[in-house]
Amino acid sequence: MSNPNGQHSLAVRALWFLVVGWWATGIWLSVAWFLNVTIIGLPVGIKMINAVPKVLSLKNRTGTLVTESGRHDQPSLVVRGIYFVLVGWWASGVWTGIAYAISLTVVGLPLAIWMYNQLPFVVSLYRY
After folding, report:
1. pLDDT, tens digit (0-9, with 9 covering 90-100), for 36-56
2. pTM to 2 decimals?
C-alpha cells in the first residue's frame, strides 16, 4: 500500500507507528548512539541514524541538499569530525532523548519526526 512516490499511505504509517514504530525507535536509537560513541561502529551508527524516520513511521527520505550552484554544500570532513568529537556525540544523545519523548505524546509527533530528520546534522553537521 504505497502511493506513486513510493511512500506508504498515512494509514499504514500510522498503524506501523502504533504497533511497532514507537518502541522499535527507542531501541534503534539506543543502539545507533552507542555505536557512534564506539568510533569503530560510527559508520553503522550514522547509517542507523539516517534510517530513524523509516523505523519510526516508514517515512522515506526525499532528496539531498543541493545549492543554487548545483553542489552539495557540506562542511568539510575535518570540520565535521572535530564537531562530532567536541559536540555531536553528546548533543545527539540529548536531541534523541527529547525527540523520542516528544514522539510518545502523538500530538508532538510532527515535531519529533522533524527532530529525527535533523539528527544527522546534530551528530555531524551532515545536511540533506
Report:
1. 888 899 889 888 887 888 888
2. 0.69
